[in-house]
Amino acid sequence: MTTTPNRTLAAAGAVMIYACVIAFTDNYVRVIAEDAGLWQFHATRTAMAMVILVLLAVPLGLRLRPRRFRAVFARSAIHGAAMLIYFGALAFLPVAQVAAGLFTAPIFVLLIQRVAYGQPISGAQVLAVGVGFAGVVMVLGPEAMSGATFAALLPVIAGALYAMGNIATRQWCDGESAETLVAGFFGMLGVMGLIGMAVLLLVPVAVPEGAEGFLQRGVVWPTGSFLWWTFVQAAGSLLGVGMIIKAYQIADASKVSVFEYIILPASAAWGFFLWGEVLTWGAVAGMGLIALAGVLIARPRADQSPTASRQ
């Protein structure tokens, strides 16, 4: 188990950068989905991201080669599967329901760390997860919890995998550089994208028009809009994913996973500025609960010095 000291405040700052960048780029997935498919998107974004990484590697002194290939490969596979399920579920479930399922991740983080690593669960952590999840439901609306089919469980499965990947960042990949883990994550999604494209090429299926065909659409001739916004996604995701990986490297997953709730108000803010989407008072109250959850999770324990959680 890693003995790297916690730097909770620095992790919170990294998560803030991640949330602002990813919330902006993800708002344009709806534009990308109009012209191409999920699989081509992941393959193209990975190609662009790898070119950017290679170009930056020498001047910035980036270390892309993993020290423990199997650990990085396993983490990349887990996180890649989580994101594929998440984006795939968007094809046939409401966005609110999918997002609510993914944000069960902090609950799984606490359970996995307790069962697999024997880490104690404090009352403040349990309360923070409960408060944060209640805030998520209020932000997304009551429809987030509707549905009881297997399809409705897919986002929760994505949340469990996402939690496992976040724990693996610190427990399995201690000592790996953030850029190594970023490269592994994008590389895995790129491979999954190529596999999906090959399958749809060999076994074509009917594809609905526009964004509704995002999951079923195979290889198409890329439009200028697709290429531009995929490049924005690649560049933004490199920065955002790098920040969230750094956060999980320098603080416990149980703390960082609750900070991630900030991406919901960040997404809502970008939605308002970009598309004119207005929040309800219930959503505003939910954001307050999300902020409260972050405060509770960041409080130092009784056996921890007051400055330890602010490093």
Q: Could you explain the architecture of this structure?
A:
This protein is mainly alpha-helical and 311 residues long. It has one domain. It has helices spanning 8-26, 29-35, 38-60, 69-89, 95-102, 105-117, 123-140, 150-171, 178-202, 224-250, 253-259, 263-275, 281-298. It is globular. The model is unreliable at 303-311 (pLDDT under 50).
End-to-end Cα distance = 20 Å
Assembly state of the chains shown: single chain
Total DSSP E strands: 0
SS class: mainly alpha
Major sheet: none
Gross morphology is globular
Gyration radius, rounded: 19 Å
Taken together, the total number of domains comes to 1
Please, how many helices? 13
Helix content: over 70%
Mean of pLDDT: 82
What series of H and E elements makes up the topology?
HHHHHHHHHHHHH
Strand content: under 5%
Indicate the low-confidence ranges by residue numbers: 303-311
